[in-house]
Each structure stands twice: as structure tokens, then as C-alpha cells.
Specification:
single chain
Length: about 150
């Protein structure tokens, strides 16, 4: 394991995600998840357009063909429900529990990469440990909520 550029970017993204989770929890105390999701996606789109204008990359948008626009629409169609669900979850459960369950995405992503890209099979033991840890936390949270009869959020 070395701290190359890719790993540093993932660590930076993880830090941003952690901060965003705390901010979302604060916002969700006053606003509906749908409102926060729409604001988040709109603000993100504006930031991306601003970056494109600053870098001069928006001129290439006119050169995109129907296939590229189709992939763009498909990506947005996947991102929008993810963003909405990602905000409904902490509105209804503890942030730490939500994060633990989202950790299950690592093994799922690995399987998808192997199937769709022919990537090398990742360390199964490591992914298994991640999956088991996330399941244990999710089960503990579910039992805690069921036994106390109160909302876990």
C-alpha cells in the first residue's frame, strides 16, 4: 500500500463526504430530504458548469454526440435517486449506521468491476471483512432501534 495520487484523492473525497454527512444531518433537521437533494444536485451542477467555464471546457459540450449525451442522462438518472436516498437515510437513522451500511458498496463495486471491466478479482478476504463489519454494525443498529422502541436517528 502506497500513498499515491489516487489514494490521496480517495482520502480527500472521504473527508469531504464525512463533512457533508454532518452538514446534511444539520440541514435535515430543518428541511425535507427532497429539498436538500434538489439543492445539492442543483448547486453541484452550477459548480461543475462554473469550473467548465473557468477552464474553457464547456465549448466541447457542443461536440458531444447523442451517445455521450445518452450516457450523461443515464448517469444523472442513477445519481438523482442515489442523492435522494442518501439524504433520506440519515433523516431516518444515525449517520454512523448509514455510513456502515454504505460500506457494503465496496464489495458490490468490486463485483461490478470484475464483471463489467474484467478487472482483477480484489482481495476477497479484505472485502469480506469490510462486508461483515458493515453488516454487524447494521444489525446492531437495527436491534438497538427495535429493542428500545425509539427512532435511531
Amino acid at each position: 500500500l502506497s500513498l499515491g495520487r489516487g489514494l490521496l484523492l480517495v482520502l480527500a473525497a472521504s473527508l469531504c463526504w464525512s463533512v457533508e454527512s454532518v452538514i446534511n444531518r444539520w440541514l435535515l433537521a430543518a428541511l425535507s430530504p427532497a429539498t436538500v437533494a434538489v439543492a445539492r444536485l442543483s448547486a453541484g451542477s452550477l459548480v461543475l458548469v462554473a469550473i467548465g467555464l473557468f477552464n474553457g471546457d464547456t465549448a466541447r459540450l457542443a461536440d458531444l454526440g447523442a451517445g455521450a449525451w445518452g450516457w450523461t442522462v443515464l448517469t444523472g438518472a442513477v445519481l438523482a435517486p442515489y442523492a435522494a436516498l442518501r439524504l433520506y437515510a440519515p433523516a431516518n437513522a444515525a449517520v454512523l449506521d448509514v455510513t456502515a451500511v454504505l460500506t457494503l458498496a465496496a464489495p458490490v463495486t468490486a463485483v461490478i468491476a470484475v464483471v463489467t471491466e474484467g478487472s482483477a478479482v480484489p482481495d476477497v478476504v479484505g472485502l469480506g471483512v469490510v462486508a461483515c463489519g458493515a453488516l454487524v454494525v447494521a444489525l446492531a443498529a437495527s436491534r438497538r432501534g427495535a429493542s428500545s422502541g425509539v427512532h435511531t436517528g
